[in-house]
């Protein structure tokens, strides 16, 4: 009985015996790995958790275009520019799939957007850091998309059908993004001493914020226990963070770069790396809206929303005209 095996990390997870019949039948479907579809009965908490997580994820994809879009005009070659444009467009597509998946749960796009602009809905902390040099575009692809894949591959098995299916395509595209970032880093480390120093500087600035992407430690994660019992999440935040470190450190070594963590060392017994403590004060400061770029990012989203008003009005007027014509013809 999966629900009883979950280690509680904040929320109390009910056992099957404590559940009402509807809820118990629902949990048994989840435990049997049967996907939940939008029209199926679901506990209100399951619906709310999914709306929170999927909308946060969608907002992250959309806001995530901003730091990279900043470099489209300055990419060093035509080829790099074309690749970066394609990547940023992919992120827009991911945001749209995810908004659609959330809409199947009964929330509208306008509501989700209003929650973002009001600061009620979060987006990933990572996108509140600035992109100062071209090497940051390499580091984002390698580390940020790398962390996103580590987190999102298990989400392909999420219990909610529309979210799990959206993640399959998204993960394929993210792995291309990760490779293009690593490719930029490979070129930089093989270049002049200044270029290699730029790559090291980008790794220094993006390493810790990338580890923060996985969320607070298991001891302080509010939602993990219940989300794992519902198989929305398959792994805890710390498990995925550890996997990311284990996968990425050898990649940094291959590049000849130094991971900026004096406590990092291979633990022979555990067969994985020990690493230093994330600066959780910084993490929560960024979550509260006080990171280096929070205000700038929200202002950009507000401007895009305001600038798009005429287009949304046009679409509505067009739809209304069609509806009226259809009614007149009936
Ligand atoms: N940034 C911002 N907020 C974060 C966060 C982060 N890195 N990590 C956790 N939080 C928030 C949670 O949303 C929650 O806040 P809330 O209660 O107000 O909603 C709070 O911190 C407590 O965290 P929990 O661990 O209890 O929350 P979750 O169980 O939801 O776990 C998560 C957090 C691992 C991020 C999970 O929500 C998740 O897997 N989300 C889907 C993936 C996602 O959103 N990825 C965005 C990454 S970037 C991206 O995809 C773009 C790509 O192109 C690079």
Quick rundown:
The chain is an all-alpha fold and 330 residues long.
Please tell me about this protein's structure.
Helices cover 65% and strands 2% of the residues. The chain has 330 residues and is mostly helical. Strands 1-2 form a two-stranded antiparallel sheet. It is built from 14 helices and 2 strands. The structure holds 3-hydroxybutanoyl-coenzyme A (3HC). The site of 3-hydroxybutanoyl-coenzyme A has 28 residues, from helix 3, helix 7 and helix 10. Residues 52-53, 56-57, 60-61, 64, 91, 122, 124-125, 144-145, 148, 151, 212-216, 221-224, 227, 233, 237, 287 line the site of 3-hydroxybutanoyl-coenzyme A.
- Outline the biggest β-sheet: 2 strands, antiparallel
Number of strands: 2
Distance between the termini: 56 Å
Output the radius of gyration. Answer: 22 Å
Keywords, please?
330 residues; mainly alpha; two-stranded antiparallel ribbon; 14 helices; 2 strands; disordered N terminus; binds 3-hydroxybutanoyl-coenzyme A
Topology:
Layout: H1 2-5, H2 21-31, H3 44-63, H4 65-69, H5 78-103, H6 109-117, H7 134-152, H8 161-189, H9 193-212, H10 224-229, H11 237-255, E1 265-267, E2 272-274, H12 280-290, H13 294-307, H14 309-329
Antiparallel strand pairs: 1-2
């Amino acid at each position: 009985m999966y629900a009883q095996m979950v280690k509680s990390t904040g929320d109390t997870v009910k056992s099957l015996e404590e559940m009402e019949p509807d809820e118990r039948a629902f949990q048994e479907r989840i435990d049997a790995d049967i996907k939940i579809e939008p029209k199926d009965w679901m506990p209100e908490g399951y619906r709310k958790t999914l709306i929170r997580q999927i909308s946060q994820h969608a907002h992250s994809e959309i806001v995530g275009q901003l730091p990279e879009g900043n470099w489209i005009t300055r990419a060093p070659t035509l080829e790099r520019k074309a690749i970066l444009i394609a990547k940023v467009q992919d992120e827009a597509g991911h945001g749209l799939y995810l908004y659609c998946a959330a809409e199947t749960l009964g929330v509208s796009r306008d509501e989700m957007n209003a929650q973002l602009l009001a600061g009620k809905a979060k987006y990933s902390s990572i996108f509140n850091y600035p992109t100062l040099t071209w090497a940051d575009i390499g580091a984002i692809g390698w580390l940020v998309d790398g962390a996103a894949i580590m987190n999102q591959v298990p989400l392909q098995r999420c219990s909610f059908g529309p979210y799990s299916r959206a993640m399959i395509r998204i993960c394929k595209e993210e792995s291309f993004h990760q490779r293009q970032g690593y490719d930029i880093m490979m070129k930089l480390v093989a270049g002049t001493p200044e270029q290699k120093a730029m790559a090291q500087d980008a790794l220094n600035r993006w390493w810790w914020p990338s580890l923060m992407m996985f969320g607070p430690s298991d001891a302080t994660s509010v939602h993990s226990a219940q989300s794992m019992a519902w198989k929305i999440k398959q792994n805890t935040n710390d498990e995925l963070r550890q996997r990311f470190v284990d996968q990425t450190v050898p990649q940094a070594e291959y590049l000849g770069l130094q991971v900026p963590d004096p406590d990092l060392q291979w633990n022979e017994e555990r067969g994985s790396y020990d690493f230093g403590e994330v600066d959780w004060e910084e993490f929560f400061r960024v979550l509260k809206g006080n990171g280096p770029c929070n205000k700038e990012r929200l202002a950009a989203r507000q401007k895009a929303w305001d600038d798009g008003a005429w287009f949304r009005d046009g679409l509505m007027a067009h739809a209304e005209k069609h509806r009226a014509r259809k009614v007149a013809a009936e």
